[in-house]
Specification:
The complex is a heterodimer. By secondary structure, chain A is of the alpha+beta class. Among the domains of chain A are: 90 residues, Immunoglobulins (Immunoglobulin-like, Sandwich); 98 residues, Sandwich (Immunoglobulin-like). In chain A, 31% of the residues lie in helices and 18% in strands. Chain A contains 18 helices and 18 strands. In chain A, the strands form 6 sheets. In chain A, strands 4-3-6-7 form a 4-stranded antiparallel β-sheet, with no helix packed on it. In chain A, a hairpin with a 6-residue loop joins strand 3 and strand 4. In chain A, helix 10 packs antiparallel against helix 11. The longest helix of chain A has 24 residues. In chain A, 32% of the residues are buried. About 33% of the residues of chain A have low confidence. Chain B is flat and about 80 Å long. Helices cover 68% and strands 0% of the residues of chain B. By secondary structure, chain B is an all-alpha fold. Chain B has 7 helices and no strands. Classes of the chains: A alpha+beta, B mainly alpha. At the A-B interface, strand 7 of A face helix 2, helix 3 and helix 7 of B. Chain A: It holds the Pfam family GHBP.
């Protein structure tokens, strides 16, 4: 037997040696953890290690010492907490007191730890998890639930000895990753928007304070809507709002709409969406004219804004519009103003003249009591011209009346009026004794055309044209001015029967001269000649009405003392005997036209008048 | 036109009022309803306890974080002796060590105890806030937390004095107080020693703030909710 004992122990030693020689690391017993679940008790756990006590399986002890103790005490309870554990019940536990525990056997100390109980709190998991349905969505696809649980039974939360915060985690059954909610103090949590067709798993854990670790998880709660008997819509797939498609189609539609609006010919729609930027506009003015027209035209346009002014001026003071600017360099380019005046379209010429002339100083013609004179920046009578007329004119943009057509028009009208005149006059009783004159005038009238054309070529400076008559049609009949120089040459050769054909109009003096060549004194002739040196005009009417009894009239010719006026007014008309010319009393131009020999220019009038 | 102006003014006033209300709404819960010195104003005891518990919880949270940060920053390579914890200046105060003791102690005594502890920590916290700035390379978070702790502790002290004034039937005793004399240790020349001193102080406060928090929660549940929180 002894031999067998010896062999047995040898074998054991060899085995132990072999075991130790296999390379397995030697692990000492260790205190793995100490925890307190509720701040009232605590327990410590250790591991054995792989030391095998050869001599005797020594007893490992856990010794502890509180702060004020002098000696180490042994663990009061090795059993309650399980194997390799030491349990300290409430009587052995003091909170906020430092403890030190050590693991040792008789000979050596394996491990030591110091702590205080409040630092090793690790609560138990919550219990009694359950859930209730809060509400479901209208589509029946999603639902909200409320999960409730109880705190761990060991923790005395009711008395407030320990406060715990909880963390809930949930996931779908076939998922792997848990979703976490924030830790909170309450023991109930709502879960929103869970899919009713799926099953969920929920678990909760707790901890004392934020700086510590969580305790163990509770048991898993299974949430299944079908089992609860709730009606729901089972969706095979996830229906998500196609945001991407909405955005893409919306952008495309908007772009197409904008392009269509831009390209559409409909001005209304275009104006509605893209309103045009207002351009500065003055009423009654064509913006093109402002761009292209000359400064004169622009001035006249801006000044001409009144409608009814023209009417007034058509009746009154239109004589003054006849004044022409001799200094106009464009004279050569245009027709004699006389021609224009003679044209029927007198309004047009009106505007022609009015537009062109702006420095004549005709302030008097613009009556001050007319309210709408805001635009008359220049004190011209340009404002008088008719707007409508002007609009017609502006279309042509020929305010200077450079159009030849005017001249052509004017000439026949002139001829017409001339022919009319003698006939009219023949109708009067005065005209009877002088048919030859009329005839001559008639004969003279066809040549008016040529004469006028001669006029065009010869004279470019027709200052004044005497208006002889206003026809019933409303046109002005003018007696074209003829320089005496031109006609004088012909007058010289004037015989009784040989009236100068060049001139349709004769000066009274010339007529006298022609008729009675030798009847008068030289000075009279001279005077008459002098008077005819100037632009002397003699109306056809006055021609017809003048009586042969020129002797009477000649006596009253203006004396040579006064500066010879261009025109001599007729003082008395002794029809049919003759005319008495008024030397001093010069006619003031007014509505009724005297059958005067001539027309006194304003300059001469100013000289003559006292 | 005047109608329009009047309505516009009215609207402006309404908007102003609403905005003021919304802006100050946040402060309503944190600001005291009753200002100091007001006589007729009465905040409920439950409200006072709620605020006190919130403050104490927050203070303990700050102290935990500060302690952990300090340990992380300066505790590497240094073996701060845990036994140094024994040298807290408030150890002289007899406080309940477990739940039974805390349940047995009278609430007035407990309140006085809490008040005494708060008072005892007032001065050390002030010095902590000032001295911690002199630590080499102290992180900003620690500095800020030190200042914050000191402020909140003051507020909690005021609140507790109010509660004690309400709860106490008899006279209020100022006996419970523990003088702190650890200032020189915070100003030691040797950095290791100084850091150890800081570590001790922070650890002591970490523990004491937990005590205060626990006691107050206990008292709240006992007095306000009838031990049924």
């Amino acid at each position: 037997m002894d031999l067998w004992h010896l062999l047995f122990t040898l074998a054991l030693v060899c085995a132990s040696d072999s075991l130790s020689a296999s390379g397995e690391p030697l692990r000492w017993p260790q205190i793995s953890k100490c925890r307190s679940p509720e701040l009232e008790t605590f327990s410590c756990y250790w591991t054995d290690g792989n030391i095998y006590n050869l001599t005797a399986p020594g007893t490992i002890q856990l010794l502890y010492m509180k702060r004020n103790d002098e000696d180490w005490k042994e663990c009061p309870d090795y059993i309650t907490a399980g194997e390799n554990s030491c349990y300290f019940n409430t009587s052995y536990t003091s909170i906020w007191i430092p403890y030190c525990v050590k693991l040792a056997n008789k000979d050596e100390v394996f491990d030591e730890k110091c702590f205080s109980v409040d630092e090793i709190v690790l609560p138990d998991p919550p219990v009694h998890l359950n859930w209730t349905l809060l509400n479901t969505s209208q589509t029946g696809i999603h639902g909200d639930i409320q999960v409730r649980w109880d705190p761990p039974p060991t923790a005395d939360v009711q008395k407030g000895w320990i406060t715990l915060e909880y963390e809930l985690q949930y996931k779908e059954v076939n998922e792997t990753k848990w979703k976490e909610l924030e830790p909170r103090l309450s023991t109930m949590v709502p879960l929103y928007s869970l899919k009713m067709g799926r099953d969920y798993e929920i678990r909760v854990r707790s901890r004392q304070r934020t700086s510590e670790k969580f305790g163990e998880f509770s048991e898993i709660l299974y949430v299944s809507f079908s089992q609860a008997g709730i009606e729901f819509v089972h969706c095979a797939e996830d229906i998500e709002f196609p945001w991407f498609l909405v955005v893409v189609f919306g952008a495309c539609g908007l772009a197409i709409t904008v392009i269509l609006i831009l390209l559409s010919k409909q001005p209304r729609l275009k104006m509605l969406i893209f309103p045009p930027v207002p351009v500065p506009k003055i009423k009654g003015i064509d913006p093109d004219l402002l761009k292209k027209g000359k400064l004169d035209e622009v001035n006249s346009i801006l000044a001409s804004h009144d409608n009814y002014k023209t009417q007034l001026y058509n009746d009154d003071l239109w004589v003054e519009f006849i004044e022409l600017d001799i200094e106009d360099p464009d004279e050569k380019n245009r027709v004699s103003d006389t021609d224009r005046l003679l044209s029927e379209d007198h309004l047009k010429s009106h505007s022609c003249l009015g537009a062109k002339d702006d420095d004549s100083g005709r302030a008097s013609c613009c009556e001050p009591d007319i309210p709408e004179t805001d635009f008359s920046a220049s004190d011209t009578c340009d404002a008088i011209s008719d707007i409508d007329q002007f609009k017609k004119v502006t279309e042509k943009e020929d305010l200077l009346c450079l159009d030849r057509k005017d001249n052509d028009e004017s000439l026949p009208s002139l001829a017409n009026t001339d022919t009319q005149e003698p006939h009219m006059n023949t109708q009067s009783e005065n005209s009877q004794p002088w048919p030859p004159f009329a005839d001559r005038i008639d004969s003279a009238s066809p040549s008016v055309h040529t004469q006028l054309s001669n006029q065009n070529s010869l004279t470019n400076t027709d200052f004044y044209a005497q208006v002889s008559d206003i026809t019933p049609a409303g046109s002005v009949v003018l007696s074209p001015g003829q320089k005496s120089k031109v006609g004088r040459a012909q007058f010289d050769g004037c015989t009784e029967q040989n009236f100068p054909m060049d001139n349709a109009y004769f000066c009274e003096a010339d007529v006298k001269k022609c008729i009675a060549v030798t009847s008068h004194e030289e000075d009279e002739l001279h005077v008459q000649e002098q008077s005819c040196n100037e632009d002397a005009y003699f109306t056809t009417e006055s021609l017809t009405t003048t009586v042969v009894n020129l002797g009477a009239s000649t006596a009253e010719t203006p004396s040579s003392e006064m500066p010879v006026p261009d025109y001599t007014s007729i003082h008395i008309v002794h029809s049919p005997q003759g005319l008495v010319l008024n030397a001093t009393a010069l006619p003031v131009p007014d509505k009724e036209f005297n059958m005067s020999c001539g027309y006194v220019s304003t300059d001469q009038l100013n000289k003559i008048m006292p | 036109m005047s109608n329009k102006e009047a309505s516009l003014k009215g609207l402006l006033l309404v908007v102003l009022l609403v905005s003021i209300m919304l802006l100050t709404k946040e402060g309503v819960t944190s600001l005291p309803i009753c200002s100091t010195g007001s006589v007729n104003c009465q905040v409920s005891l439950g409200e006072l306890f709620d605020r006190a518990v919130k403050l104490s919880h927050y203070i303990h949270f700050l102290s935990s974080e500060m302690f952990n940060e300090f340990d992380e920053h300066y505790g590497q390579g240094r073996h701060f002796i845990a036994r140094a914890v024994n040298s807290c200046h408030t150890s002289s105060l007899t406080t309940p060590e477990d739940k039974e003791q805390a349940q047995q102690i009278h609430h007035e005594a407990l309140l006085n105890l809490v008040l005494g502890m708060l008072r005892s920590w007032n001065e050390p916290l002030i010095h902590l806030a000032s001295e911690v700035q002199r630590i080499k390379e102290a992180p900003d978070t620690i500095l800020r937390k030190a200042v914050e702790i000191e402020e909140q502790n003051k507020r909690l002290l005021e609140g507790m004095e109010k509660i004690v004034g309400r709860v106490h039937s008899g006279e209020v005793g100022n006996e419970i107080y523990s003088q702190w004399e650890g200032l020189p240790s915070l100003q030691l020349a040797d950095e290791d020693s100084r850091l150890s001193a800081f570590y001790n102080l922070l650890h002591c406060f970490h523990r004491d703030s937990h005590k205060i928090d626990n006691y107050l929660k206990l008292l709240k549940c006992r007095l306000i909710h009838g031990s049924n929180c």
